[in-house]
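=== RUN LOG ===
request id: a7f3
mode: sequence -> structure
chains: 1
length: 210
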Amino acid sequence: MKAIVQGIMNYQLEDHPEHQHLFDELANSQSPEVLLVTCADSRINPNLVTSTAPGDLFVCRNAGNIVPPMPGYTGGVTASIEFAVAVLGVKDIVVMGHTDCGAMKGAMNPDAVAHLPSVKHWLSFAEEATAGVSAADSGCPDALLKVTEANVLLQLEHLKTHASVAEKLSEGTIGLHGWVYHIATGDVTAYDEEQGAFLSFADHYASLLA
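=== RESULT ===
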């Protein structure tokens, strides 16, 4: 805790004054273009990974970057999505999973989280992503990555059940993106619908970057 307290003091004395003009602009409003749904894992720093500044991303974080499907569930994730889309008017939504995800390990082996009823219930929203992977495979990196990628795609499908998102999709005014952040290398792969696979950023977004 000491390091965190010291960090806030350093921020107040050094970092904030250095970017005072930006915070003057952000003091009373925000207009992010992207909603990022990602994991609560402490190793994930959305602004660091995306090289973005305060005000650029509307971030929703939870264990396993999960989006409970509608109808039938109301909670913080649902409210955050609705606010980002219907009020802030984000133009894109990204679901970003990551390697070595503890939530995905739990989803692959429900017995391991049986003593954590809230966690087990939450991970039920990722259950479909584990199809075909047994508990015995939970320690296999390839199996874990497969489930992580499948979970990203599953949560994108869940997003489409949210009324605010469905409306924007029907209008063609919002884009959905599925990413996986690879902690060890810093790589981020993106799902390509045409190829049905996760590709490098350079390949998937070649036309956007041209």
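=== NOTES ===
The two ends are 45 Å apart (CA to CA).
The longest strand covers residues 92-98.
=== END ===
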